[in-house]
Amino acid sequence: MTEPKDEGSTQKSARTGKPPARWRYLPLAAVAAAAATAGIAALLVNIFEHKQEAKSPFYRVVELDDTIDDPAVWGKNFPLQYDGYRRTVDQKRTRFGGSEAVPRTPTEADPRSVVAQSKLEEDGRLKTMWAGYAFARDFREERGHAHMLEDQVYTERQIATKQPGTCIHCHASVYVPYKKLGGGDLMRGWEAMNQMPFPEARKLVTHPVSCIDCHDPESMQLRVTRPGFIEGIRALKASTGEADYDVNTMATRQEMRSYVCGQCHVEYYFKGPEKRLVYPWAKGIKVDEIYAYYEENGHSDWTHAESGAKVLKAQHPEFEMWNQGIHARSGVACADCHMPYQRVGATKISDHHVQSPLLNVNRACQTCHKWPEDELRQRVETIQSRHFEARNRAMDAVVALISDIRRAKEAGMADEALAGPRAAQRKCQFFVDFAEAENSSGFHAPQEAMRILASAIDTCRRGQLSLRDGSPPE
């Protein structure tokens, strides 16, 4: 049956001259359809462009080879990475690390207008620990890679003592200068520069750490170029039964993402009159094993001005401490946290703005840890707060032992009787310094850091007891 027509509606439309209500929305529908079509087309074009970008992660603007150490030249092919590298000039402080931009009046001897704050002014106990050593003259908070060369050139430690060219190993881009100095032989050039006075060696380098120090110019693969690490990691592997280890052919890619950092962020010493740089890993990489190595070869950095003990200065053993922590055991590399991956368009790169993960929690931490930023930051700062408290107790113990030895010495106690307390100072001071100089404030390996500080406190106590009853500390 045919339904009756709505004659009233049709007649009304005829009288008013307007289309039925259902027709009025046709233009709007057409506009919406056109907009949706345009949006889909734009999305498809964007996807296509990103796929094309992903096929070409960089453009070969210049030819790179093993003689180019200027990062600006590399930056022509890799502008995104170079932009991050240049931003390491910034100075941002976290609660327990980083540095503040402290203004200073430039002088002819030191043209810097900005420096980091002095750790010696922040904690005067360090002057007591390092009495008689150059670090008691000048020691400042760490700054970014962009400052690594100039801060070494203009530190007052250069005035306090004549530093060797060995220091250049970790404060400049050295791969090309070593090769030139060694007539194409990297190791020979390194050995030659070690023996130079620092001012002479400084003339041979131009840049702080550069692209060529970590990347092969042909393949862009990561590589280790620092001879100190090449020898050190070989010695470490040999201690575990793996002989003739070649880091550049035997390490995995993920291992290399930590090894390129471990080239410099390590404990080391200068061996003999030739000032050969040595990473003391022949017995292992833990603080006890490193200390045993020093005990065996009899090395000391200086004689303490107050106690007369032959003592050691730990440097910056981030690599050693990281190796004892949960991140290393879980296969997390240094670069995963300090140079996390980022997306720029369709391109995925490592962020070359090397900095504290606490300044980049989203990409550095939340990739693995699915908790709010504030909670993650609080967890880290809780670990660091507890470490800082233990560190303070340990430093008080070292300073107290030094004071007791000094008073006993002034009172006429014989060197034979002071040998035990001085040995205790040598060990506990090195352990405290190992945990203090490691720049994560305990975070890289919280339990190991606490063990080290507890051992140091106990050793100091035993040293003080031996002063009282003349028995050697165990």
Automatic annotation (TrEMBL):
<feature type="transmembrane region" description="Helical">
    <location>
        <begin position="25"/>
        <end position="48"/>
    </location>
</feature>
<comment type="similarity">
    <text>Belongs to the cytochrome c-552 family.</text>
</comment>
<keyword id="KW-0472">Membrane</keyword>
<keyword id="KW-0106">Calcium</keyword>
<protein>
    <recommendedName>
        <fullName>nitrite reductase (cytochrome; ammonia-forming)</fullName>
        <ecNumber>1.7.2.2</ecNumber>
    </recommendedName>
</protein>
<dbReference type="InterPro" id="IPR003321">
    <property type="entry name" value="Cyt_c552"/>
</dbReference>
<keyword id="KW-0560">Oxidoreductase</keyword>
<dbReference type="Pfam" id="PF02335">
    <property type="entry name" value="Cytochrom_C552"/>
</dbReference>
<keyword id="KW-0408">Iron</keyword>
<dbReference type="InterPro" id="IPR036280">
    <property type="entry name" value="Multihaem_cyt_sf"/>
</dbReference>
<keyword id="KW-1133">Transmembrane helix</keyword>
<keyword id="KW-0349">Heme</keyword>
<keyword id="KW-0732">Signal</keyword>
<keyword id="KW-0479">Metal-binding</keyword>
<keyword id="KW-0812">Transmembrane</keyword>
